[in-house]
Amino acid sequence: MSTSCSLLHVPVDLAAEPDLDQDLRVRLAFAQQKVHEVVALGRALRDGVGGLPTALPAIPAAWRKDGVRARLDALRPEHLRRGPYAQRAAIQQARLNRPPPTTTGSFPQTTELRQAPGQPGLRPEDRGYPEVEQALTRLVAGAAEIRSTLT
Fold first, then answer.
1. Is there a contact between 45 and 1 (Cβ–Cβ < 8 Å)?
2. Are 34 and 14 in contact (CB under 8 A)?
3. Which DSSP letter does residue 57 get?
4. Each residue's pLDDT tens digit, 123-150
């Protein structure tokens, strides 16, 4: 049993936040509380659910946004259909004007790749995308060659 993600960027302990509203506190879990929850779930798997806490209290009325509920209730199946990817991508690119996506973080960070132009910190128009693509192509080809010798 484990958390589904790293607790590296989660605040450490809810006890360090004594000024939070009590209605909010019962719904939060910082790293220490998440670890306790994982331990409790592990014990429940081993020993049964009898030791698990009861459900959360109802959401305070002041937190409810009836307009949001009304908009959600008004959604119909046709509202949930998305257009073709190419059409959505073109609309998104026109609105956001983002640079091309990279896969640099998905590859081993070799010296060659780290030194390739187009690394973070440069303006999109200054990035040398062809050079990065060439470095990635060489990296993938090298990995494929190594893999072929192992199989």
1. yes
2. no
3. P
4. 444 455 666 667 777 777 877 787 777 7
